[in-house]
Each structure stands twice: as C-alpha cells, then as structure tokens.
Amino acid sequence: MSMLMLASCIHERRSIEPVPTNLDYCIRLADIHGLWGGYDVTIQHDGTTYVREVKVERGHREKRFKTKLSVLELGEVKSFIIDAGYFAFRENVRSGVPDEARPHIWASFDGYSLHSAKWANDNDKRFDLVYHRLLNLAVKIAKQRPTWAGTYDARIVWPSFLKTN
Q1: Is-contact 87 114, C-beta < 8 A?
Q2: What is the dotted CATH code of the domain comprising 3-155?
Q3: Going edge to edge, which strands form the sheet with 104-109?
Q4: pTM for this structure?
Q5: Phi–psi pair at 135, nearest 5 degrees
Q6: Cβ proximity of 136 and 152 under 8 Å
C-alpha cells in the first residue's frame, strides 16, 4: 500500500490528534476535474510550492509552476487554515451528482492532520474558506512564468514525489 493511501486511511478518522506521517508536503489541494479543469496546489514544509493549472479550452492544456513561499507567507497560510476551523470539518458523505466536482484538501502540520473532500454543491464555511484561499494562491502563482506547458494527461503525477507518498 502506498504511503499516500496509508496516510489517507489514517486521515479518514478525521482526527486532529497528531498523526505520524512522512509526507513530503504539509498542505495540498487537488481540484482538477476532467470536464472543467482546475488547479492542484502542493506546499512542502519548507515553503516550496507546486501548482498545476489545467484549462479545457482548445483541448486540455496544462501549465506547471514552482515557486517558494516565504516563511511569513507559509505561516500565514497555516494560521489561516487553523483559524478557519478546517481541522473541525466533517465531510458530508453522499453520492455526487453527474459532473459535480469534489476537491480534496490535505493539511498536516503543527500537530494537526486532516484529509478531507467536499462535493461542490455542499456548503461548509470551514472547508470553503481554506479551498478559496488555496485556489487564490494557485491563481496568483499561475500568473508567473510556467516551468512546463503542454497537453494535460491525468495519468501524470506532478510533482513526482507524490507517487511515493
């Protein structure tokens, strides 16, 4: 079983107790939908940040970005996640409706740890605040010069260290 699958199983308990993991990242948003495109954001413990942007106009086009958040910026994102009450979020378990997006957020830092997902048609202020903060960060980073651009392939895992988690 991959470490990511194992970590996801551990996180499914929705615990805010420290969860021992050796993930290479502390915050992650996965929100690329096959029909609508979207963004993935992965922030490592040192602030290194990877953004994957997929747009569906004229075929599925992808751009990848890599930057580094300052210590202050990373601290602000972590504080925002805690202050938004994200670690108290509980997913509404249900089946989705056709074409409904279901973004995932992983956060594991400072003794807190949670992996959750939320259907787009559900409303929860805690999840939505964090989702929009990470999405806005992705959009901001995606205005920079990409490190790679080309045709989107959902089978590609990027950054590559996610394959081993």
Answers
A1: yes
A2: 3.30.1560
A3: 112-117, 104-109, 27-33, 37-43, 48-55, 61-68, 148-151
A4: 0.84
A5: -65, -45
A6: no
